[in-house]
Amino acid sequence: MPLNEPDSPVIGRLAPSPTGGLHLGHARTFLIAWLAARQAQGKIILRIEDLDASRVRAEAAEMALTDLEWLGLDWDEGPYIQSERGELYDQALKKLKAAEHVYPCTCTRAEIERAASAPHAEDEGPTYPGTCAHRTAAAALALGDRPFAWRFRVPAGPVCWNDLFLSQVAMEPGRLGGDFVVGRIGLGPSYQLAVVVDDALMGVTQVIRGDDLVPSTPRQILLYQALGWTPPRFGHVPLAVTPDGRRLAKRDGSIKLATLREQGVDPRRLIGSLVQSCGWSETVVPAWPAEWITRFDPQSLSLEPWVLSTEWLDSLGDFRFRTG
């Protein structure tokens, strides 16, 4: 069954970050997002999220396009480049300032860690204790050259959404990190602000991504509400992990799509293997993504992490998994 309401237009997106080559985990998530939109006869937007200047690799953006084309995952608009859209993010931040949804924060990470007393998730960092929350947006004028970040005022209480894969989810961002950064002076917008602005202005109605971004969703919903925009439908799928349980990362060069391509792996066989990993086929049937549009079944997708076993990798052909 489709993930969308029957009469609502679906606009999905693929948003790779050019900080390294795409790996098999990206391929699986992008395939699911692509099939979900195409089954609903929707559009796909391609966006390159290159705001993390310290980690961006110049050749990685072009490589991502090559990887997607090799897999047979096409798009209808783009690629849009985030680093070229700074004025739009500035306008959104200006709107947040005018409504006093943000304030200037001069706290360092070390100061926040010392002040925080509540437990926190490993990936989220300490909960911000609200040291600078008394400031108004205009207080930034008196800071002169002092470095600061713009923090969003998180209201008390849970944020709820109906996840396309996880069903009903409720999280309380005030307890999970607290007031969060939406921009830094001299460094530009944060990921949270940029993706909300981009998805809203591009008309994205369906966001399917890895479940490591579940904690970002309530923050982004709050930003949508503060900016007067309607949030998309969110869906979070399991990440890929190595046999020892480690989250797959771009540093795992041996299982990058570029490596598979260079080793002569058949992309149709890779798609067939990814389809099998999602539970939609008992055997590996080489096929292009378009051949699975009508057979896409989100309800059968396991919510457990996808373990990239040696046996699964061997099924691709002569390719062999390498660690280190």
What does this structure look like?
The protein is α/β, with parallel strands linked by helices and 324 residues long. The protein has two domains: 11-83 and 238-314, HUPs (Rossmann fold), CATH 3.40.50; 87-189, Glutamyl-tRNA Synthetase, Domain 3 (Glutamyl-tRNA Synthetase, domain 3). It has nine helices and 13 strands. Helix 3 (86-98) packs across helix 5 and helix 5 crosses helix 6. The longest helix has 16 residues, at 24-39.
How would you describe this structure in keywords?
324 residues; alpha/beta; Rossmann fold; Glutamyl-tRNA Synthetase, domain 3; 2 domains; 13 strands; 17% strand; disordered N terminus
Which homologous superfamily in CATH is the superfamily of the largest domain?
HUPs
Q: What assembly state would you assign to the polypeptide chains in this entry?
A: single chain
Count of alpha/pi helices: 9
Order of helices and strands: EHEHEHEHEEEEEHEHEEHHEH
- At CATH level 2, the architecture of the largest domain is 3-Layer(aba) Sandwich
CATH class of the largest domain: Alpha Beta
User: Domains counted in the coordinates: how many?
Assistant: 2
Characterize the biggest β-sheet: 4 strands, antiparallel
For the residues shown, what is the average pLDDT?
88
